[in-house]
């Protein structure tokens, strides 16, 4: 019986992780769960999966649910609560499915405690990739990718030698506004931005897909996960999201991973690795798909992707600054405070003013995150 903790169990990845766990009750047991503010869903999950420890975003929320928990369930809150649930149970694996850089300290704590990581929270590697990967190596824990593109690359690399790899290509759907010109982007609404063509995901990542920030974060995530240089990482527009990504080898052979867009597949693979099990996902019929399409990435149309590559190559605190500016700008867009195109403006302005610190430790990254958030909120 594998023991699993899910950080962010009430979100899109979190609920799908619990779906996978529920399909295999003989294989998995839930040790810990955390939510932000959705206490109603957390309570349902707690009564179903009986974790030993749970956490919510604030003390107030914790007090609201204290009496409603099954006897013996330990209750925590805030960032310390996340860390306690991440590190303080007997879990073998922690699935990191919280949204944003708030996931960093708990992921580090889980690694420090020797837990294997099912990594959905890409912001963790973007902000502190050098620290997270070094700690994972030192502790001998696996960083098993859940992000669909990285799971695809991980699967394509299975049994291969990294020295034989020429490069990898991450596919990008283009997001909700793939076929709109920059002129047409001026009038788009939050509701339109939240209509992803292929995937049903949390609000923040759906907006990130439309700005192509998501692919930018994924490029940096891939750099750290697979130890590849930025010149070996490419992005290709693929509207159908059926080829999830591919690896090109030195002999020109390409190995790709394909499937209908369904996150339960990469989530389950992270849980079962190196085994595979049957899945409720709809099998892919290439005959039914008929044709797949590809386009070169247009970096003028999607400038955030270019910025992400630049920040990745720069290193230091630049990727953390890129990420924090984006988190604030997206939250402001979702609240209706700024336009869609202002997300890019805010990121670009923040980066223009950013003083890069090379090889930052955790406190330098946290300071950068705080400073950039304040700057991005004021723009
Ligand atoms: N959704 C997807 O298909 C994919 C997601 N990812 C990545 O996975 C991560 C999660 O994405 P997704 O599931 O879409 O996001 P959601 O917004 O759907 O869920 C986020 C989760 O984090 C919790 N949360 C949010 N803020 C806080 C906080 N301050 N403290 C504690 N918990 C908090 C939420 O709690 P609550 O809802 O209770 O407030 C929720 O459980 C992101 O990093 C994303 O980039 C990667 C690939 C695919
Ligand atoms: C499902 C998943 O992994 C998302 O990160 C997805 O990649 C978003 O799609 P695009 O960013 O390609 O629009
Ligand atoms: Mn992805």
UniProtKB/TrEMBL annotation:
Its cofactor is Mg(2+); Mn(2+). Transmembrane segments: none annotated. This is 1-deoxy-D-xylulose 5-phosphate reductoisomerase. NCBIfam families: Dxr (TIGR00243), PRK12464.1 (NF009114). Its EC number is 1.1.1.267. Residues 258-374 form the DXP reductoisomerase C-terminal domain. Gene3D superfamilies: 1.10.1740.10, NAD(P)-binding Rossmann-like Domain (3.40.50.720). Pfam families: DXP_redisom_C, DXP_reductoisom, DXPR_C. Residues 4-129 form the 1-deoxy-D-xylulose 5-phosphate reductoisomerase N-terminal domain. InterPro entries: DXP_reductoisomerase, DXP_reductoisomerase_C, DXP_reductoisomerase_N, DXPR_C, DXPR_C_sf, NAD(P)-bd_dom_sf. SUPFAM superfamilies: 1-deoxy-D-xylulose-5-phosphate reductoisomerase, C-terminal domain, Glyceraldehyde-3-phosphate dehydrogenase-like, C-terminal domain, NAD(P)-binding Rossmann-fold domains. It catalyses: 2-C-methyl-D-erythritol 4-phosphate + NADP(+) = 1-deoxy-D-xylulose 5-phosphate + NADPH + H(+). 1-deoxy-D-xylulose 5-phosphate binds at residues 122, 148-149, 173, 196, 209, 214-215, 218. Mn(2+) binds at residues 147, 149, 218. Pathway: Isoprenoid biosynthesis; isopentenyl diphosphate biosynthesis via DXP pathway; isopentenyl diphosphate from 1-deoxy-D-xylulose 5-phosphate: step 1/6. The gene is dxr. The keyword NADP applies. Keywords: Isoprene biosynthesis, Magnesium, Manganese, Metal-binding, NADP, Oxidoreductase. Residues 143-226 form the 1-deoxy-D-xylulose 5-phosphate reductoisomerase C-terminal domain. NADPH binds at residues 10-13, 36, 38, 121, 123, 202. Catalyzes the NADPH-dependent rearrangement and reduction of 1-deoxy-D-xylulose-5-phosphate (DXP) to 2-C-methyl-D-erythritol 4-phosphate (MEP). It comes from the Bacteria. It is an enzyme of class 1 (oxidoreductase). Belongs to the DXR family.
């Amino acid at each position: 019986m594998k023991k699993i903790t899910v950080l962010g169990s009430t979100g899109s990845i979190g609920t799908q992780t619990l779906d996978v766990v529920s399909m295999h009750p003989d294989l998995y047991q839930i040790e810990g769960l955390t939510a932000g503010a959705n206490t109603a869903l957390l309570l349902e999950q707690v009564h179903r999966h009986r974790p030993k420890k749970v956490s919510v975003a604030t003390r107030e929320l914790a007090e609201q649910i204290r009496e409603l928990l099954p006897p013996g369930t330990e209750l925590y809150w805030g960032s310390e609560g996340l860390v306690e649930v991440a590190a303080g149970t007997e879990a073998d694996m922690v699935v990191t499915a919280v949204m944003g850089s708030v996931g960093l300290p708990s992921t580090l704590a889980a690694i420090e405690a020797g837990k294997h990581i099912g990594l959905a929270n890409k912001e963790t590697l973007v902000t502190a990739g050098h620290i997270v990967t070094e700690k994972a190596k030192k502790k001998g824990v696996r960083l098993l990718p859940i992000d669909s593109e990285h799971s695809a690359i991980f699967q394509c690399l299975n049994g291969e030698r990294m020295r034989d790899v020429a490069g990898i290509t991450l596919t990008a759907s283009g997001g909700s506004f793939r076929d709109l010109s920059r002129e047409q982007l001026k009038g788009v609404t939050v509701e339109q931005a939240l209509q992803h063509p292929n995937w049903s995901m949390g609000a923040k990542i759906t907006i990130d897909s439309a700005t192509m920030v998501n692919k930018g974060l994924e490029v940096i995530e891939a750099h750290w996960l697979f130890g590849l240089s930025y010149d070996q990482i490419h992005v290709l527009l693929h509207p159908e999201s059926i080829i999830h990504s591919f690896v090109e080898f030195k002999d020109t052979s390409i190995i790709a991973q394909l499937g209908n867009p369904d996150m339960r597949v990469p989530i389950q693979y992270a849980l079962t690795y190196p085994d595979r099990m049957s899945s409720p996902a709809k099998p892919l019929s290439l005959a039914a798909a008929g044709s797949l399409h590809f386009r070169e990435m247009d970096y003028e149309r999607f400038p955030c992707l270019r910025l992400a590559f630049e920040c990745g190559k720069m290193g230091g605190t630049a990727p953390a600054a890129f990420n924090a500016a984006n988190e604030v700008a997206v939250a402001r867009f979702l609240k209706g405070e700024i336009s869609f195109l202002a997300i890019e403006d805010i990121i670009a302005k923040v980066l223009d003013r950013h003083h890069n610190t090379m090889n930052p430790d955790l406190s330098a990254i946290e300071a950068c995150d705080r400073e950039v958030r304040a700057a991005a909120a004021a723009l």
